TrEMBL record:
Residues 79-162 form the Methylated-DNA-[protein]-cysteine S-methyltransferase DNA binding domain. One of its GO terms (molecular function) is methylated-DNA-[protein]-cysteine S-methyltransferase activity. It holds the Pfam family DNA_binding_1. Keywords: DNA damage, Methyltransferase, Transferase. This is Methylated-DNA--protein-cysteine methyltransferase. The gene is ogt1. The keyword Endoplasmic reticulum does not apply.
Protein backbone atom coordinates (compact mmCIF):
# COMPACT_ATOMS: atom_id res chain seq x y z
CA UNK A 1 0.00 0.00 0.00
CA UNK A 2 1.21 3.48 -0.83
CA UNK A 3 1.03 6.13 1.86
CA UNK A 4 1.22 9.87 1.14
CA UNK A 5 1.68 13.03 3.13
CA UNK A 6 2.45 16.70 2.61
CA UNK A 7 5.46 18.56 3.96
CA UNK A 8 5.28 22.35 4.25
CA UNK A 9 8.73 23.50 3.09
CA UNK A 10 10.14 27.03 2.82
CA UNK A 11 9.62 26.64 -0.95
CA UNK A 12 6.00 25.54 -0.73
CA UNK A 13 4.11 22.30 -0.25
CA UNK A 14 5.92 19.08 -1.04
CA UNK A 15 3.96 15.89 -1.66
CA UNK A 16 5.64 12.65 -0.52
CA UNK A 17 4.68 9.08 -1.37
CA UNK A 18 6.13 5.79 -0.10
CA UNK A 19 5.37 2.12 -0.38
CA UNK A 20 6.66 -0.68 1.82
CA UNK A 21 9.99 -0.72 -0.06
CA UNK A 22 10.87 2.97 0.03
CA UNK A 23 10.11 6.54 -1.02
CA UNK A 24 8.55 6.51 -4.49
CA UNK A 25 7.86 10.19 -4.90
CA UNK A 26 8.69 13.67 -3.71
CA UNK A 27 7.21 16.51 -5.75
CA UNK A 28 6.66 20.21 -5.36
CA UNK A 29 2.92 20.84 -5.49
CA UNK A 30 1.96 21.25 -9.14
CA UNK A 31 5.38 20.55 -10.67
CA UNK A 32 5.70 18.92 -14.07
CA UNK A 33 5.17 15.13 -13.84
CA UNK A 34 3.51 15.62 -10.44
CA UNK A 35 2.69 12.25 -8.84
CA UNK A 36 3.27 10.32 -12.06
CA UNK A 37 4.43 7.20 -10.17
CA UNK A 38 1.48 7.29 -7.81
CA UNK A 39 -1.17 4.61 -8.20
CA UNK A 40 -4.84 5.24 -7.50
CA UNK A 41 -4.66 3.09 -4.37
CA UNK A 42 -3.08 5.13 -1.63
CA UNK A 43 -3.80 6.33 1.86
CA UNK A 44 -2.88 9.49 3.71
CA UNK A 45 -0.79 9.02 6.81
CA UNK A 46 2.72 8.43 7.98
CA UNK A 47 5.24 5.60 7.83
CA UNK A 48 8.85 5.27 9.00
CA UNK A 49 9.98 5.83 5.40
CA UNK A 50 7.96 9.06 5.10
CA UNK A 51 9.21 10.25 8.50
CA UNK A 52 12.80 9.57 7.39
CA UNK A 53 12.18 11.67 4.27
CA UNK A 54 10.71 14.48 6.39
CA UNK A 55 13.79 14.38 8.69
CA UNK A 56 15.99 14.60 5.59
CA UNK A 57 14.02 17.61 4.32
CA UNK A 58 14.23 19.38 7.69
CA UNK A 59 18.03 19.02 7.72
CA UNK A 60 18.27 20.09 4.09
CA UNK A 61 16.05 23.17 4.45
CA UNK A 62 18.04 24.16 7.56
CA UNK A 63 20.91 24.70 5.10
CA UNK A 64 22.84 21.57 6.03
CA UNK A 65 23.92 18.56 4.00
CA UNK A 66 21.94 15.55 5.25
CA UNK A 67 24.19 12.71 6.42
CA UNK A 68 21.73 9.99 5.37
CA UNK A 69 19.44 9.13 2.49
CA UNK A 70 15.94 7.82 3.14
CA UNK A 71 15.24 4.39 1.67
CA UNK A 72 14.25 4.88 -1.97
CA UNK A 73 12.18 2.78 -4.36
CA UNK A 74 12.89 3.96 -7.88
CA UNK A 75 10.19 3.19 -10.42
CA UNK A 76 11.22 3.71 -14.04
CA UNK A 77 13.04 2.17 -16.96
CA UNK A 78 16.51 0.69 -16.46
CA UNK A 79 18.00 3.72 -18.22
CA UNK A 80 16.07 6.20 -16.09
CA UNK A 81 17.05 4.42 -12.89
CA UNK A 82 20.72 4.40 -13.95
CA UNK A 83 20.60 8.17 -14.53
CA UNK A 84 18.73 8.86 -11.27
CA UNK A 85 21.24 6.79 -9.29
CA UNK A 86 24.05 8.77 -10.92
CA UNK A 87 22.42 12.01 -9.74
CA UNK A 88 22.80 10.82 -6.14
CA UNK A 89 26.58 11.02 -6.63
CA UNK A 90 26.58 14.75 -7.51
CA UNK A 91 28.12 16.45 -4.47
CA UNK A 92 26.00 18.84 -2.40
CA UNK A 93 26.59 22.43 -3.50
CA UNK A 94 27.88 21.58 -6.98
CA UNK A 95 26.42 21.14 -10.44
CA UNK A 96 27.00 18.75 -13.33
CA UNK A 97 25.92 18.97 -16.95
CA UNK A 98 23.58 16.62 -18.76
CA UNK A 99 26.51 15.62 -20.99
CA UNK A 100 28.70 14.77 -17.99
CA UNK A 101 25.97 12.63 -16.48
CA UNK A 102 25.49 10.83 -19.81
CA UNK A 103 29.21 10.06 -20.08
CA UNK A 104 29.36 8.82 -16.48
CA UNK A 105 26.36 6.54 -16.93
CA UNK A 106 27.75 5.29 -20.29
CA UNK A 107 31.01 4.37 -18.54
CA UNK A 108 29.01 2.29 -16.04
CA UNK A 109 26.60 0.64 -18.52
CA UNK A 110 27.72 -1.18 -21.66
CA UNK A 111 25.84 -0.08 -24.76
CA UNK A 112 24.21 2.97 -23.13
CA UNK A 113 25.26 6.17 -24.88
CA UNK A 114 22.55 8.75 -24.21
CA UNK A 115 22.69 12.21 -25.72
CA UNK A 116 22.55 15.17 -23.32
CA UNK A 117 18.97 15.71 -24.50
CA UNK A 118 18.02 12.11 -23.62
CA UNK A 119 19.63 12.50 -20.21
CA UNK A 120 17.70 15.76 -19.78
CA UNK A 121 14.44 13.93 -20.45
CA UNK A 122 15.27 11.26 -17.89
CA UNK A 123 16.41 13.83 -15.31
CA UNK A 124 13.24 15.87 -15.75
CA UNK A 125 11.12 12.79 -14.94
CA UNK A 126 12.97 12.13 -11.68
CA UNK A 127 10.14 11.23 -9.29
CA UNK A 128 12.07 12.03 -6.09
CA UNK A 129 12.98 15.71 -6.34
CA UNK A 130 15.60 17.27 -4.08
CA UNK A 131 16.76 13.98 -2.50
CA UNK A 132 17.72 12.78 -5.97
CA UNK A 133 19.19 16.17 -6.89
CA UNK A 134 18.04 16.83 -10.45
CA UNK A 135 18.24 20.53 -9.59
CA UNK A 136 22.05 20.15 -9.70
CA UNK A 137 22.06 19.14 -13.38
CA UNK A 138 22.28 22.03 -15.83
CA UNK A 139 22.82 22.40 -19.57
CA UNK A 140 26.41 22.92 -20.76
CA UNK A 141 25.70 26.66 -21.19
CA UNK A 142 24.81 27.01 -17.49
CA UNK A 143 21.20 28.08 -18.01
CA UNK A 144 18.68 27.12 -15.33
CA UNK A 145 15.99 25.94 -17.74
CA UNK A 146 14.43 22.52 -17.80
CA UNK A 147 13.84 21.78 -14.11
CA UNK A 148 10.45 20.13 -13.54
CA UNK A 149 10.01 22.13 -10.32
CA UNK A 150 10.62 25.42 -12.15
CA UNK A 151 13.57 27.76 -12.67
CA UNK A 152 12.98 29.70 -9.45
CA UNK A 153 12.85 26.52 -7.34
CA UNK A 154 16.05 25.24 -8.95
CA UNK A 155 17.87 28.50 -8.27
CA UNK A 156 16.62 28.61 -4.68
CA UNK A 157 17.74 25.03 -4.03
CA UNK A 158 21.19 25.75 -5.46
CA UNK A 159 21.45 28.93 -3.38
CA UNK A 160 20.39 27.02 -0.26
CA UNK A 161 23.30 24.65 -0.92
CA UNK A 162 25.60 27.68 -1.34
CA UNK A 163 26.41 26.61 -4.89
CA UNK A 164 28.63 29.02 -6.85
CA UNK A 165 26.02 30.75 -9.00
CA UNK A 166 28.49 32.88 -11.01
CA UNK A 167 28.89 30.40 -13.90
CA UNK A 168 25.11 29.90 -14.16
CA UNK A 169 22.86 31.95 -16.40
CA UNK A 170 20.11 33.50 -14.30
CA UNK A 171 17.67 35.71 -16.20
CA UNK A 172 17.71 39.24 -14.70
CA UNK A 173 13.92 39.14 -14.35
CA UNK A 174 14.29 36.29 -11.82
CA UNK A 175 17.05 37.79 -9.68
CA UNK A 176 14.68 39.60 -7.31
CA UNK A 177 12.64 36.43 -6.77
CA UNK A 178 15.51 34.19 -5.73
CA UNK A 179 16.32 34.81 -2.06
CA UNK A 180 15.04 31.93 0.03
CA UNK A 181 12.67 33.05 2.73
CA UNK A 182 13.78 32.29 6.29
CA UNK A 183 12.29 29.01 7.43
Amino acid sequence: MVTVKYYDSPLGLIFLAADDTGLIGLWFEGQKYFAQTLTRNYQTGSTPILESAVRWLRVYFAGEKPSFTPRLHLIGTDCQIAVWKRLLAIPYGTTATYGEIGKQVAAERTGFRPSPQAVGGMVSQNPISIIIPSHRVVPANGSLTGYAGGVIQRARLLMLEKTDMKPLLIPPSLSALLPLEAA
